[in-house]
Amino acid sequence: MSHTIKDKQKLLNRVRRIRGQLDSIERALEEEKGCMEILHQITSCRGAMNGLLATVLEDHIRTHLIDAPHDSTEHHEDHTDAREQLIDVVRSYLK
């Protein structure tokens, strides 16, 4: 079972809150709100996205890298794949 399925409702709730924050940014832009208000909304949304990423990434590390079985060749390949996937995610985030 994927760790995202285990925490599905919690993650979906976070995504829905982020969607609400994005809608709020869109409304602020449409209503020509001040720059500072829009910047605060954007940084709040970015913080929420970072929090979501951190949660999923931490669970990924714990599930697929730290707690992953180490006894067979197949699991070793999965472990290596998980590491490469993690590196790809971190690289894309840092771009």
UniProtKB/TrEMBL annotation:
This is Metal/formaldehyde-sensitive transcriptional repressor. Pfam families: Trns_repr_metal. Transmembrane segments: none annotated. Belongs to the FrmR/RcnR family. It comes from Undibacterium rivi. Signal peptide: none annotated.
